[in-house]
Design brief:
Chain lengths: 466, 183
């Protein structure tokens, strides 16, 4: 290193280090930087340094020997008057026996500096302290900004969470509402269908009842007079026989007419004819009774009902569908009726159940005949009635059609479920029947079936109220 | 420019008008930033777009906006955490203007991409100075007028300022004649 040639004069030194302080071996302050002096109320020159400053670092007291021992250390002094801290190094001037503490403000606190009226121009241009001060200010500004942004983000997070909660609630609510709506729609559809079905059944009942009533009067009239007609005819035939006995040789005109009308045949056939008419009117009366029994449309309350009569009436109504047509054979109906008491129920509704189930059985049998090549059984419907444990009336209606898969079985009582081709079934018959048996009569409606093994429906009605 | 400047424009519009106006200005300027970060450097173009959009939205000329901004800037920097530094920069208007370049230089430690303007004062007569302003950016001279007025308010000093030289008119720099008197 070249030997230094130049040094500073004391005045320049003071300008470059406005915060410096110098003291002698007696710890007496012998020199003070202008700005440091200005920040103190008292004149520091001539004062004992340890009265006005304390050493923060290193951890030593104001002692010349100790200071000299630590001369290479970084020193931090703090003013006992204003808490101003100074950072720098001790420089020993051996000749003058003086130690100069060359320093500047340490850990600058801008508010303290402002309070002490220290300005930017009070720092030497080379001094980095103002830069630290600016850096500190900016760092505080940045921290405030980060805090503000963090708060904003936290707030936004809370808002987003709240929004998500609201959205979740709304979604749940809308799902519930959709579910309610779906249920309500299904209920409306079901009710509507039931109303339509009930109206159809009511119309059918009224029609049947009307026809039965209209037919009943003339048939009763015919049937009632038939007895007298038979008697009159019998009397006339007796009289004719008397004439033939006492006038064996009638005039030619009478003989000719007798031949023309074939009096011998007429005498034997007329009673047969009348008997046949009697059987016919009796049958008509029976049909009318069945029709009246089926309709029972005027019965809004439970009444004791002969279930067998209801089943028979239903079969009579469905008679035309049981008969053979085209390649389809007669459906044999096997009745295995047990002894039943009168059952307290809504006759018309129960008849509707029989109608739906027997109709389904007929459809299943016709479907098997028409669409299943390997099905070659005689189409049969077996209707069994019995009383189960003295508690329930049981009507079992079984067919020997193709039966059903388990998956179809699980849905057969659901509204609008049908295995029939589009347009042929509404999917409501069994659903309505289920409602009538289970809800209206507190009974049970069940089905047993397997593919290829036909189907059997069991209707159970409690006898408690019967 | 640093986010500090854009944030100041935002605060000025929100203070003088409202947030809805600021949103319109931002939208018109096609600025998508939700928040300007003070220590982040943004393209100068973004600030220019904001000023242009504010001019259209508020029905003021760009010069009027810039002058208002200069005035607002003095208050804004004090409230944005630089109060003590401003305090240390001087106790009077001429002293502060004299220290402005040093202030900018020192502040460059925290804003390394800062391209600060240069201010030079020449004493013309008692209470009259010429302020010479130079910047790498164009069109900011009106801001200086507002800045000096804002400093006048800060130091409770009445200020008359007139531009005597203009770079736009072909001069080497912008010069402002400032007559001031402490109240």
């Amino acid at each position: 290193m070249n030997k230094p040639l130049y040094t500073l004069n004391p005045q320049t030194f003071c300008e470059l280090y406005p915060f410096h302080i110098g003291f002698n071996h007696n710890l007496e302050i012998v020199q003070v930087g202008e700005v440091l002096q200005r920040t103190h109320q008292i004149t520091l020159l001539g004062e004992q340094i340890d009265r006005h400053f304390q050493i923060h670092q290193p951890a030593i007291a104001f002692d010349i020997l100790k200071i000299q021992k630590k001369i290479k250390s970084l020193f931090i002094l703090e003013s006992k008057h204003n808490s101003l801290k100074l950072k720098g190094q001790m420089v020993a001037l051996k000749e003058q026996q003086v130690i100069l503490f060359i320093c500047s403000v340490w850990n600058p606190d801008s508010s303290l500096l402002s309070k002490l009226a220290v300005k930017l121009k009070d720092f030497a241009i080379h001094d980095l302290t103002p830069d630290f001060l600016f850096l500190q200010q900016t760092s505080q500004t940045a921290i405030r900004e980060v805090q503000s942004l963090t708060e904003e983000l936290t707030q936004q997070k809370i808002q987003i969470q709240a929004s998500l909660e609201v959205q979740k609630e709304l979604t749940s609510l809308s799902q519930k509402q959709a579910q309610h709506l779906k249920q309500a729609l299904s209920n409306i559809k079901e009710t509507q269908s039931q109303l339509i079905q009930a109206e159809k059944m009511s119309s059918l009942g009224m029609l049947v009842a009307g026809i039965a009533h209209e037919i009943n009067n003339p048939v009763t009239f015919i049937h009632g007079n038939l007895r007298y007609l038979q008697e009159y005819v019998e009397n006339l035939l007796k009289l004719l026989q008397l004439y033939q006995k006492y006038y064996p040789q009638p005039s030619s005109e009478i003989a000719t007419e007798a031949d023309i009308i074939d009096i011998v045949f007429l005498e034997t056939d007329l009673p047969k004819l009348l008997n046949s008419i009697k059987i016919g009117t009796e049958r008509i009366c029976k049909i009318v009774d069945s029709l009246k029994n089926f309709s029972r449309h005027d019965e809004a309350k439970k009444k004791p009902v002969d279930i067998h009569s209801g089943i028979d009436s239903t079969l009579l109504i469905l008679q035309h569908r049981l008969k053979a047509y085209g390649r389809n054979a007669d459906i044999q109906v096997i009745k295995q009726y047990g002894e039943l008491p009168l059952v307290n129920c809504y006759a018309s509704s129960i008849n509707q159940v029989f109608m739906n189930i027997i109709s389904n059985s007929i459809d299943a049998l016709r479907d098997a005949e028409e669409n299943c090549a390997d099905w070659n059984q005689g189409p049969t419907i077996v209707i069994r009635t019995l009383v189960n444990d003295s508690q329930n009336l049981v009507v079992r209606i079984a067919d020997n059609g193709m039966g059903m898969e388990q998956s179809a079985m699980e849905k057969i009582f659901d509204p609008f479920f049908t295995t029939k081709p589009v347009g042929k079934g509404t999917g409501l018959g069994l659903s309505i029947s289920y409602g009538i048996v289970v809800e209206k009569h507190g009974g049970k409606l069940s089905c047993i079936s397997a593919p290829g093994e036909g189907a059997e429906f069991a209707i159970e009605i409690p006898l408690l109220n019967s | 420019m640093y986010g500090l400047v854009n944030r100041a424009i935002q605060d000025m519009v929100c203070d003088m008008f409202d947030e809805a106006t600021w949103e319109k200005i931002k939208q018109k300027a096609e600025v998508i930033e939700q928040q300007f970060l003070i220590l982040e450097a943004y393209p100068d173009d973004l600030t220019h777009r904001l000023v242009k959009s504010a001019s259209q939205e508020l029905g003021l000329s760009s010069a009027e906006i810039m002058q208002a901004f200069g005035e607002y800037w003095v208050k804004f920097t004090a409230t944005a955490g630089y109060q003590e530094i401003l305090d240390m920069a001087g106790d009077t208007l001429p002293e502060f203007l004299e220290n402005l370049d040093d202030l900018h230089t020192r502040i460059g430690v925290q804003f390394p991409k800062l391209q600060p303007p240069s201010f030079e004062c020449t004493e013309v007569a008692e209470n009259v100075i010429d302020l010479h302003y130079q910047s790498t950016r164009e069109g900011l001279a009106p801001m200086v007028v507002g800045l000096v007025k804002g400093l006048g308010d800060r130091f409770h000093t009445a200020v008359d300022i007139t531009q005597t030289e203009s770079r736009e008119a072909g001069c080497e720099r912008d010069t402002f004649r400032i007559e001031y008197r402490a109240e």
